[in-house]
Amino acid sequence: MLDSACAFTKGLKKPISADCATACAKAGSPLVILTDSGTIYWPIADTTPSSGQNDRLLPFAGQKVTATGKVFERGGSTALVIEKIEAQK
Question: pLDDT, tens digit, for every residue of 57-74?
Answer without folding.
Answer: 999 998 999 999 999 999
